[in-house]
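Hi, does anyone understand the following?
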Amino acid sequence: MSAAGIPAAPRDPLVIGITGASGAMYAIRLLQSLAHCEIDVHLTISPSGAAVIKQETGLAINLRGLDLIQLVSYIPGWSTDRHRELVQQTDWESVLAQRFHYHQFDDYMTPIASGSFRTSAMVVCPCSGSTLSGIARAAASNLIQRAAEVHLKEHRKLVVVPRETPVSALQLENMHKIALAGGVILPAMPGWYHDVDSLDSLVDFVVSRILDQLTLDNRLIQRWKNGS
């Protein structure tokens, strides 16, 4: 509710693109976190992204008939009881039916391919080197790259999460170009100052920093405090 007593308008939707870099769990945890935010999510996944998800999680997802519940309810064997309970207690059918929307990676007729469809931000997580290149050169070869291009041209927030090391001069140049165009380069480089006690802590660090860029409240990590 606004100060004038007028109900606040809902936030415009988010766009999430998953591509073929290592780090599928960052994307899954991001989707799990967004399920608890009052915001619509438009999701698209590249074939390489699906291949990495299968290699890193064992989930064989069908991009032509995606089982979203299978994806967002995934719990790795190393996850803590706290995270396990959070995922298991979520009403995924209700959340996905109301706020999650899936688009084929090669369907340019979807809303997120057009700048006239209002969105609040986009995250590419994880972001492959080829996706970096496609975005930097405005040479979209799939819906993810096209949607990213839309966010840059419309001066909306674009958060790119590369996960590769080391990086070449060409990759650094592509990151630089995206940053100059207004994008945020947020490498999947977890910190260690937040009382790390599990792999979940390291995943949550990166996801929390992404959510911060989207101005979405989260308590995934213990934040830095003076004197701590």
